[in-house]
Amino acid sequence: MKKFMDKDFLLQTETARVLYHEHAAPMPIYDYHCHINPREIAENREFRNIAQAWLGSDTYKWRLLRSNAVSEGCVTGSEVSSREKFQYFAESLSRAIGSPLYHWTHLELQRYFDCDLILNGENAEKIWELCNARLQAADMRAQGIIERSNVQVICTTDDPASDLKWHTKIKEDGKCPAEVLPTFRADSILNIEDDGWDAYMRYELGEAADMDDVSTMADIREAIVRRLDYFAAKGCQIADHALPYMVFAPAKEYELDDVVGKVINGKGVPSKLAMEQYKTAILLFLGEEYARRGWTMQIHYSALRDVNSAQYSILGHDSGFDAVDTHNCAPALAKFLDALNKKGHLPKTIISSLNPADNIVIAALLPAFSGTEALGKIQQGAAWWFNNNKEGIEAQLRILASISVLGNTIGTPTDSRSLLSYSRHEYYRRILCNFIGNLVENGEYPADMKTLGKLVEDISYNNACRYFAF
Questions:
Q1: What's the helix, strand, coil split of the chain in %, to 5?
Q2: CA-to-CA distance for 57 and 76, rounded, in angstroms?
Q3: 96-112 per-position pLDDT tens digit
């Protein structure tokens, strides 16, 4: 029987162990997609206790608590103390056998708190005291955690209307050990079907772009260009787009103006076709702008958002009540990429689906739109969200290796709101090295450790640096 989560955790072969310890583990982190609040970094946030650090914004942990019949007041509310919330989590975690959350939690205990204890209800008090004492150290404040994690680049997620003041402060202070860059998250512009879209376009995006009126497609394009210029001046080089499903429904300019005009003037919500036409036009325009600027376009889809309407009405978005959706996005995705490619305006693009059935769909598209601008110009995103587990990561690696080129992948982002989540990169790298190690030990790839070592180092970090030209 193997020891629980020892130094060779998940590494089943000698090849895997050498690849991880000598090549993957020392590599820095390029976190090209996360949801960390830049204010936490700018203010070098200090955590009062481990419950605040762990349970304050981690929807994975919230979902675990709810699944163990813990009341919402004890999850996101104020019915109990932080110590009691931690106790609920410790007791719930013991039941999460096979869950990546169980592994992530103990990796965080080991790497950040020098704690090899197993978290459960019985020793929760001891771990609570140990972690809280450790959190008092300077290297456990926000910027210290970033330095301890060997993070070189952090790309946050930022609304187009944001003034990016916290990024400015981080830059001016010059104390953060990582380069912290904004990401242009265009959802607020794209989601014409949402309540409040009209007010956002007029009063938030319009004001941020210093425009008196935003009421036509031409106005929207002008506002977008102005905001892209602003983000570029702040170092932005990546844009992000969360879609329920991929769209491709081209329309005439007068049709688009009609849709925009009706919604802007409060004359009803757009039809499904009108919504798809608008989103298609905006995405195509954005794609051309990104290509012109040398930016990377991220597209992710098939998340079924806020399925619990009662809890959504209380807690709002991003509260842990999402699920996996199913759509046939292949035709629309191919047509979208082709439309930009025909005009010579296809940017570097990362495509992710929350539905694991789409792995082969996306992987098969990558070589069809390769280019000389970057190695692996069109990328399949790493196993994401509900797929970010041992089986999900292995499945994504296996399919990518089978029908595309695994050696060109840019690895994984953190995709988290928690600064302690950088241990997820270790989790990914261990699984990656084990996957490659098994191929070698099975005689499916030569035991050329020089080539293999470089391959692992590239996937872990170097490919991302080259891809984003950092």
A1: 55, 10, 40
A2: 9
A3: 999 999 999 999 999 99
8 Å CB contact between 396 and 353: no
Average pLDDT, whole number, for the chain?
Answer: 96
Alpha-carbon distance of 229 to 10, in angstroms, equals: 45
Q: The sheet that has 238-243: what strands, in order across it?
A: 184-185, 238-243, 296-301, 348-353, 378-380
Q: Amino acid identity, residue 447?
A: A
Q: What is the DSSP letter of 10?
A: T
pLDDT single digits (tens) 99-156:
999 999 999 999 999 999 999 999 999 999 999 999 999 999 999 999 999 999 999 9
Reported pTM: 0.97
Rounded to whole angstroms, the Cα distance separating 308 from 282 reads 30
What does the alpha-carbon distance between residue 215 and residue 198 come to, in Å, rounded to a whole number? 9
H runs (alpha helix) in 94-216: 100-113, 124-134, 142-148, 165-173, 187-190, 197-199, 206-208
Phi/psi of residue 352, each to 5°?
Answer: -135, 140
- Would you say 42 and 141 are in contact if contact means Cβ atoms under 8 Å apart? no
Contacts of 272 (CB under 8 A, 6+ apart): none
Q: Which residues pair with 350 in a beta bridge?
A: 298, 379
Structure tokens of 354?
């929350």
Does residue 365 contact residue 333 with C-beta atoms inside 8 Å? yes
- Per-residue model confidence (pLDDT) at position 302: 97
C-alpha span between 46 and 135 (Å, rounded): 8
Angstrom distances, CA of residue 97 to CA of 64, 101, 103, 193 = 12, 9, 9, 40
How many helices, marked H, and strands, marked E, lie in the chain? 22, 10
Q: What is the DSSP string of 321-342?
A: --EE-----HHHHHHHHHHHHH
CA dihedral 390, 396, 397, 399 (to 10 degrees): 140
Residues 375 and 378: their CA atoms lie apart, in Å, by 9
Which residues pair with residue 324 across a beta bridge? 303
pLDDT band at 221 (very low <50, low <70, confident <90, very high): very high
Q: Is the pLDDT of residue 470 over 80?
A: no
Helix/strand/coil for 448? coil
Residue 380: C-alpha distances to residues 61, 300, 307, 359 (Å): 27, 10, 27, 8
What whole-number distance in Å separates Cα of residue 459 and Cα of residue 9?
20
Helical H segments across 234-358, by residue range: 253-264, 272-293, 309-315, 330-342
Instruction: Name the one residue in this structure whose structure tokens are 């497609």.
Output: 217
Instruction: Determine the residue type at 91.
Output: E
Angstrom distance (rounded) from CA 41 to CA 167: 9
